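User: Okay, second chain of the day. Same drill as before: sequence in, structure tokens out.
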Amino acid sequence: MARPRVEIPYEELRELYVAGQSTLMLAQRYGCSPTTISAHLRRCGVQVRQARFREIDIPAAVLHDLYVLQRQSLAQIAQALGVSPSTIRNRCRSYGFPTRQRTYSDTV
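Assistant: Same drill. Structure tokens below.
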């Protein structure tokens, strides 16, 4: 059985995407998949942005100072650097920093 065809106004789609909306946000808006949105964008001549995850450069020395020496929480560091706590955790892991147990003060 064929899937129903999704009617998406190209000009509106182009404007929303260029204004910064993601393919996921647009897919939710139009009731289709992000892949469908990407295909429609390509058809109307829009260069689709690369992966939704961008590489964040956090030098080991900076992270070592904040996490190991100052003992700031992942959430505190993430907020200060404008990234998610999981990004900080993953970067700490990749640099081989020792993990700390989560404490009550980390959650408040």
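Residues 60-98 form one domain.

User: Thanks, on to the next one.
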